[in-house]
Design a protein that fits this description.
280 residues, alpha+beta, 9-stranded mixed β-sheet, 6-stranded antiparallel β-sheet, 7 helices, globular, binds pyridoxal-5'-phosphate
Length: 280
């Protein structure tokens, strides 16, 4: 597989070569924020929503984001290099605190902006594994998309070890929360439900679009606090994310699930609307 495109400081670089300081605070303590977006025919899907969330994540960490124009220019440079024939891709925008001290305090220096793009796999129905660790809905970084993602790495590795493609986490109250890089939905009796943001889950761009577009299409989707047990008991479930769209869950641990009829309708509606509108 070809190396990802890498754009830093106004230029493309070899992604295998060292480029930023080894003491960048994003590197030493995970002091940074990021977005993963889908590249459709060389264009970034829902870029404005992703930039707004990047701003919210940066504000939550107390980081100043660069000018929006600089972020958009960097994204455009990568989109142009990727090209309309580049196939399905994922584009990642990362902003870190930049060069910093060895500890958790900040130097207040210039941040680092990185935009990268690589190929994405077409989404496929997935089996999930419920892991024993929890999201802390009262954490200082709850709901922020920070580069401190090691908890997700560990949880996803556990799921992979057990033959799954995603891990599902509860929060500290024992409520269903989200996956490592996905929001979770359950379907029963014709209604699709997803945990509210107060569960500590990320405000997924795909999740928000599903809630909005479901209302337009007359599909019953709502936010609802649920116990973790809901994922073990539901007849149908699905994941959403920028790289998966809305994807049925076909197994929870050892239990087999069938895609739900409303989930399939909503997944189709999501694909149709996202083909029609690149920046909804
Ligand atoms: C923890 C977490 N939850 C949910 C999501 C899904 O969000 P989105 O639909 O914006 O990709 C992500 C995606 O990156 C994530 O990292």
């Amino acid at each position: 597989m070809a190396d990802p495109l890498l754009f830093v400081d106004g230029d493309f670089h070899d992604p295998r070569r060292p480029l930023i300081s080894a003491l960048d605070h994003g590197m030493t303590v995970g002091d940074g924020v990021f977005e993963t977006c889908e590249l459709l025919d060389g264009r970034t899907f829902a870029l404005t929503r992703h930039i707004r969330r990047l701003e919210r994540s940066a504000a939550g960490l107390g980081l100043d984001l660069p000018d929006e124009g600089r972020v958009r220019d960097a994204v455009a440079a990568v989109e142009n290099r990727w090209g309309p024939g580049g196939g399905l891709g994922r584009l990642r925008i990362t902003w870190t605190a930049g060069y910093g001290p060895l500890g958790s305090d900040r130097s207040g220096g210039e941040g680092t902006l990185i935009v990268a793009a690589g190929p994405a796999r077409a989404p496929a129905p997935v089996r999930v594994v419920v892991v024993p660790w929890v999201r802390n809905e009262r954490s200082a970084i709850a709901g922020l998309k920070t580069t401190s993602y090691a908890e997700n790495v560990v949880a996803l590795a556990r799921a992979t070890e057990r033959g799954g493609g995603e891990a599902i986490l509860a929060n500290t109250r024992g409520e269903l929360c989200e996956g490592t890089g996905t929001n979770v939905f359950v379907e029963a009796d014709g209604v699709i439900a997803t945990p509210p943001l107060s569960s500590g889950c990320l405000a997924g761009v795909t999740r928000a679009l599903v809630l909005e577009w479901a209302a337009d299409a007359g599909i019953a989707v709502r936010e609802q606090t649920m116990p973790l047990a809901a994922i073990h008991e539901t007849p149908h479930a699905a994941l959403t994310s920028s790289t998966r769209g809305m994807t049925p869950i076909i197994g929870v641990d050892d239990r087999v699930l069938k895609p739900g009829p409303q989930t399939l309708r909503m997944a189709e509606e999501f694909d149709r609307r996202s083909r029609d509108e690149i920046d909804p």
